[in-house]
Amino acid sequence: MSKKDRLDNYNYMKNLTDWVPKEDIFKKDFVWPRQMEIHLPSNKEIACDFHCFYCQGSKLDMSLGMDEKKALKLMEEIGPNTFEYYVYGGAYTEPLLNPYFMDFMRLTKKLKAHFGIHSNGSQLKKLQEKNGFCTELVSLMESKYDYYSCSLDGGSPESHMKTKNIKYDAWTDIIEGLKILVSEREKQKSKGSIRVAYLLDKWNSGIEELTNFINLMKEIKVDSLRFSIPYAQYGNEIEKVQNYKQKIEIKEHLHFKKLLEPLMSKSKDEKPFIFYFAPVNQDIDRMLDENYKQCAYTYYQTTMGSSGHIYRCSSIATPSFDYGILGKQPETVEEFKEMIRVSQDKEFHCHTCIHSTARCNRMALEINTEWNAYNKENNYTAKRDSTMAVGPKKKRDEQKHVYSEIDKRWNKKEYIEDTGSIMDEENFRTPKSFQAYQANNTKK
Ligand code: SF4
Ligand code: SF4
Predict the structure, then answer these.
(1) What is the CATH number of the domain that holds 78?
(2) In a domain, 28, yes or no
(3) pLDDT band at 7 (very low <50, low <70, confident <90, very high)
(4) Which ligand is nearest to the CA of 91?
(5) Ligand 2 centroid distance, CA of 313 (Å)
(6) Ligand 2: distance of its center to the CA of 290 in Å?
(7) Ligand 1 mean position to 315 CA, how many Å?
(8) Pocket test residue of 286, 287, 292, 313 for ligand 2, highest count of atoms within 8 A of CB
(9) pLDDT digit string, tens, across residues 192-232
(10) Total domain count for the chain?
(11) In the predicted model, is pLDDT for residue 188 greater than 70?
């Protein structure tokens, strides 16, 4: 789909430049990014109740060390007229499993910001029965900019179980949950948006399943339905991602484009607006382009990861990408602003990430591509930094990509790879075994 056919919310460079004029990027000393992403650390026991094969964090360090009370206090102190949006989701966590979730929603609205939620939908029905969760969530939605987005990724209990790697039917309750949200929206005459995302894989993409699912979404009356092909996992070497592009993205795209074309919306006014986001929006080779230099995405967002650190962006928000950490969860607004200031850096080079097995998300790819085309004359200031992997060679989740230069590291920590001596490990809370959680769930 071309940019002009997309819903406004999906025009990322426009969103950015409506927020900060291009002339101010890398010129002003400090700009509040458009949004703050907060990856809530689930229930601190497990990272997520599903186990998708494409989960971005699942092969990386899934720390759950964030202090929610401290995060809420910081938000209070940040106050209104700063971030336009607070986006709740997770690289590897389910935000609705977090006991403080609704406190974050209430506070976001108190701060007169919009909220966006990215969730797998598993808790909607359960929480509605427990405490009227959906009723309250919808009551907080003031405009179409407040949204709940469900990553559903399956048109039947069977394909959903395979995709999410679980042994019980969670799909039926998710559909019930979406129905509750929509009916609450109608009852309360709320303007909030309810979106659904669907990653296509070998189990969930038969034409019959897709057609039935689209009809179901029309019947439920969600606002939008987005199809796309899963992203290659972060933490993989470039060659592996390029291989995935050839074997999966290119091949599957030809198939899905043809299959989905007749089912997609023909005009932006259709409800639900149904669209397919092609893998060109996640193309590794675009990130390797030699003019892909400065990272302007730091003006779009900043991220508090589940681990309890502030990161340059949401796609590197795991301690595995140590070089992307700006600092520990800040105590004061000044401390936080200093971290953002450091991240809005004309010298930081996107290839530092790409060569550390990290990658930009779709929004960042679009913004950084357009920004570097616009700023080609001046973006030579960006310099790629060298990073190195420390930790056990065969255990990706225990490895960290750190700056090779010790002075550049956020905590100036030394590793055995630098000095030959083992330093104390930080004590992050790590998730309980997923298998144990699932066994428990299957029994119910
Ligand atoms: S639902 Fe989301 S967070 Fe949970 S395993 Fe799947 S991709 Fe990861
Ligand atoms: S992954 Fe992309 S968006 Fe994130 S910090 Fe690196 S270059 Fe910027």
Answers:
(1) 3.20.20
(2) yes
(3) low
(4) 1
(5) 6
(6) 15
(7) 14
(8) 313
(9) 999 999 999 999 999 999 999 999 999 999 999 999 999 99
(10) 1
(11) yes
Measured from the alpha carbon of residue 48, the closest ligand is 1
Q: In this structure, is residue 194 part of a structural domain?
A: yes
Longest dimension (CA), the chain: 65
Q: pTM above 0.85?
A: yes
> Ligand 2: which atom is nearest the Cα of residue 358?
1
| Ligand 1 pocket residue status of 59, Cβ below 6 Å | no
For the segment 372-385, what is each residue's pLDDT rounded down to a tens digit?
Answer: 999 999 999 999 99
The domain of 133 spans: 3-283
Ligand with an atom nearest the CA of residue 350: 2
For a ligand 2 pocket test, name from 241, 293, 316 the mutation site with the most ligand atoms within 8 angstroms of its C-beta.
316
pLDDT digits (tens, 9 = 90+) for 47-57: 999 999 889 87
Residue 430 falls inside a structural domain? no
Taking the centre of ligand 2 as the mean of its atom positions, its distance from the CA of residue 25, in whole angstroms, is 16
| Atom nearest to 58 CA in ligand 1 | 8
Say if 405 falls within a structural domain: no
Confidence at 425, pLDDT banded by 50, 70, 90: very low
